[in-house]
Amino acid sequence: MTHIHPLDGVLAGRLAAALRKPAAQQPLWRDPRRARDVVAALGRAGPIVTPEETARLSRQLAAVARGEAFLLQGGDCAETFADNTEAHQRGNLRTLARMAGVLAQRAGLPVVKIARMAGQYAKPRSQTVDAHGLPVYRGDMVNSAEATAAARTPDPDRMLRAHAGAAETMALVREFRRSGADEGDIYVSHEALLLDYERSQLGVDTTGPEPRLASGLGHFLWIGERTRQLDGAHIAFAELLANPIGVKIGPSTTPEQAVEYVRRLDPHGEPGRVTLVSRMGHALVREVLPPIVEKVTASGSSVIWQCDPMHGNTYLSANGYKTRHFRRIVDELTGFFEVHRQLGTHPGGIHVEVTGDDVTECLGGAPAIAEADLPARYETACDPRLNAGQAMGLAHSVAELVARSRTTGLRNGRSL
Ligand SMILES: O=C[C@H](O)[C@H](O)COP(=O)(O)O
Ligand SMILES: C=C(OP(=O)(O)O)C(=O)O
């Protein structure tokens, strides 16, 4: 049994110092006093996940880092209050479970499943204003997608609604597991973006190599490409957490920065504590990733290498939809596996935006979606997701890549 203690003086001080650092992508609340009250109320609300579940995930991620398992992470780009329905969330869980089934069977490795779910309600954005000059939509936890100035004003009460929605979703995830609809564990994750939400539910976990902050808001948390500044609040916050941590690394990441993330986030060399999620784009992965993998490996760290083949391959279609082409997604994954095969490292997992709904948001796949099909069911609140058919096609492609990398690894005397 993992005991979580109230925040003590030392860790409370380190948390306060972390949160004083510059924090990118934070909203300016309409009523800061109300925001403080909401953070306090969230602290009194029940946790979404238990420390025992998070500890079990950490053990499974250690197996991924050792090359004994594969990590499948996926779900909506942005959860929304409107789509937090049983049908939608179950559809997403079923899709993830089916993808895992294909991977486990063909690749012959246990698959650790993490849903982007039960808290994925805040989005980082490239711009601060949209095409109409309104503040951008930053996820249902912050404001509304509706295009009016009032709806786009950040409202702290939305954090309470997001937390309540996450609790309901987590109950559904547990029920999904119990019902036998899936054979194994399924964990939840979200981007640790909105610091007022993230700091609201922290206790002290003393079971690790040093006392750390246990977040009750998700099993696995990741820091995004837009908030991974080494002198910023997000990395300083993540450094204090007991939960396993991901860091998205885009094409501007240097090998030195990658080594520094690992040094800061995994000072005790715990296998699988850190997942480096490369999202380089299909055209750059073969060039940018190798020196990063080489330098991090040479530093002696045991990270999980995970590929997000979505975020580096986004573009605007001729008819004005933010989309991604299935072919480029598979090409980035192929490049990721090539790099790891060449370097003798374990291609540990994938991180994808998928839904069980029959949406038309990404191009290609089978049956193929063409640009003219995009308007039919383009439903995402932010970035384009693979639909269930495309997701299964991707699972088959990745299963082949994993199986091939295992054969090559065994031929070269490595045990994956
Ligand atoms: O999901 C990731 C980001 O939030 C998203 O790609 C940002 O999108 P934008 O470039 O339209 O702001
Ligand atoms: C924002 C995301 O990705 P990235 O930080 O890699 O752009 C995301 O995964 O939702």
Automatic annotation (TrEMBL):
Transmembrane segment boundaries: none
Xref: InterPro entries: Aldolase_TIM (IPR013785), DAHP_synth_2 (IPR002480)
Comment on bound cofactor: Binds 1 divalent cation per subunit. The enzyme is active with manganese, cobalt or cadmium ions.
Enzyme Commission number(s): 2.5.1.54
Positions bound to Mn(2+): 77, 311, 353, 383
Similarity comment: Belongs to the class-II DAHP synthase family.
This protein's name: Phospho-2-dehydro-3-deoxyheptonate aldolase
Native species: Amycolatopsis iheyensis
